[in-house]
Amino acid sequence: MAVIIIANIIDFAAAMVMIWSGTMKKKSKILAWQSVQLLMQTVSMTMLGGITGAISNVLSVIRNIICYKDKLTWYVKALLIAASLYLTIRFNTQGALGWLPFVVCTVYVLLMDIQNPIAFKLLVTASFVPWVVYYFLIRSYTGAFFSGATVVTNSVLYNLHASGHASRQEMRLMQKLVRPKWFMPVHGEYRMLKLHADLAVQCGLPKDHTFVCSNGDILTLMNHQVTRGGSYPADSIYIDGKTAVGISNSVIRDRSTLIHEGMVSVFLTIDAKSNRLLYTPVVESQGFISSNKKGIEHKCGEVVGIEVNRLMKSGVKVTYNDLKTTVRNVTNHFLYRESHRTPMVIPVILALKAPQDGAQKAS
After folding, report:
1. H helix runs in 22-99, sequence order
2. What is the pTM of this model?
């Protein structure tokens, strides 16, 4: 933590030097102060692991020293760009973000022979903007915290707040005054809740006495103990049509399945009294598949019939839920094997009396 704080202070001081260099009129002074700024940023980047940024800054200082007395020749420019390219390839561990310093350094080298002080000052200022992006590029903090990662934010401002309201020191003061035995932070994004819980641990609270909860998580309070107690459905509510109640995520998922995968209905006709299947199941699909549709439906009905007969002749009492579960599982497995798609499967069960033998002969 101390390293991060020191690095942030150095970055802030480097930014002040950059602003100060913008007040200079002579190109030589601008280069000198910019070199100081680059060296300060090199130190902070090395402390925080920004190796490609530190490499580009060192090469930029060398470039400024050469350019201080004379113009850069195209031969020297090519050497600097080649060195920056090689070192970036060799030490880059930041993906696309790690190439940003190389791009800035290359553009600056190609354009730094500008003689007009105002234009050169604009170039210096413009070259600093990508560094701001390099330092403060917004990341997916919520996903990182859910995976258990610790996010290090290279900004003094981010280090001041945990929830967006009270400062860290005020939260520490509250912990010291209240001295809770159990702690569940509320308000803010998940990363903010995590930071608030970590702050409570820093103040002496056991880590297993803090709870970072999502919507719907349940905490059970019993015998002066607090434990997690599962979760309760607390999905987002989507307004649909005229109803003010809204629809749940499960309805949205069903609609998405119907759109992308289609629907398959399986019709069963059973004799509940004798516990047997009367006819081969009938399968009908909508929006599922067009090629060899009838053949797949017929074969699927035969496979479902075999499994349903096996279930009903197993000797145990079979409920409607057992039948529906079997139909869904068998149909999904068969259709995925045939088409690599998972449509919505809707079992329809008709309970009829078995026809009499005489009726069968008459028919």
Report:
1. 27-48, 51-69, 74-91
2. 0.35
